[in-house]
């Protein structure tokens, strides 16, 4: 939705809030609406991103996230599979499948890990680095949450980013979350 200056007066999210308030007036909406909204936003962003990455690069959103994780690692742009599945919150089996696909496309390579005798590292290739950089530029320019695609002001987007980062810090510091995606 491009910025139009108009506020949408009704939406499925508002319908969700109204129907839960009607059905469960005993519960405080602040206790359940935030997770519902975050899940809904995440699914929408992922679905739109998946279509975009498929169209631009022939890759899924999760494969692009893997390239991003490798790209931001710096140095020789390499991570152990364990580091990848922890960073991406996906299973080790999913990592293997995605690495296979990215390797076949020439975007990553498996190389022996000098620090771990039977282990290996996933390295971003020059082509993979180029795709990651182009994808990040595209994300900044025209993602569903980019400045031109949302009614949020820059200050509101800055606040949302800060609050989301704070929530992630809380969640990731929780010992019950450690390893929950392994």
Automatic annotation (TrEMBL):
Q: Name one GO biological process term.
A: response to stress
- Domain (HTH marR-type) spans 31-169
Family matches, as Gene3D superfamilies: Winged helix-like DNA-binding domain superfamily/Winged helix DNA-binding domain (1.10.10.10)
Q: Enumerate the InterPro entries for this protein.
A: HTH_MarR-typ (IPR000835), MarR/SlyA-like (IPR039422), WH-like_DNA-bd_sf (IPR036388), WH_DNA-bd_sf (IPR036390)
Picking any one GO molecular function of the record gives: DNA-binding transcription factor activity
Q: Where is the signal peptide?
A: none
Which SUPFAM superfamilies does its entry note? Answer: Winged helix' DNA-binding domain (SSF46785)
Q: Per its UniProt record, what PANTHER family does this chain match?
A: TRANSCRIPTIONAL REGULATOR, MARR FAMILY, TRANSCRIPTIONAL REGULATORY PROTEIN
- What name is this protein filed under? HTH marR-type domain-containing protein
């Amino acid at each position: 939705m491009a910025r139009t200056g108009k506020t949408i007066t009704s939406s499925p999210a508002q319908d969700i809030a109204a129907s839960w308030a009607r059905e469960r007036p005993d519960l405080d909406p602040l206790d359940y609406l935030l997770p519902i909204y975050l899940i809904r936003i995440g699914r929408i962003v992922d679905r739109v991103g998946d279509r975009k990455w498929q169209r631009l690069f022939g890759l899924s959103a999760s494969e692009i996230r893997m390239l991003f994780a490798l790209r931001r690692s710096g140095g020789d742009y390499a991570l152990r599979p364990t580091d990848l599945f922890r960073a991406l919150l996906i299973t080790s089996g999913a990592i293997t499948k995605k690495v296979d696909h990215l390797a076949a496309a020439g975007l990553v390579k498996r190389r022996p890990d000098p620090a771990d005798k039977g282990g290996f590292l996933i390295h971003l290739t020059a082509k993979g680095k180029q795709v990651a950089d182009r994808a990040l530029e595209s994300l900044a320019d025209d993602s569903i949450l980019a400045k031109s695609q949302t009614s949020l002001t820059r200050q509101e987007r800055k606040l949302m980013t800060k609050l989301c980062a704070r929530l992630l810090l809380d969640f990731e510091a929780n010992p019950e979350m450690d390893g929950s995606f392994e």
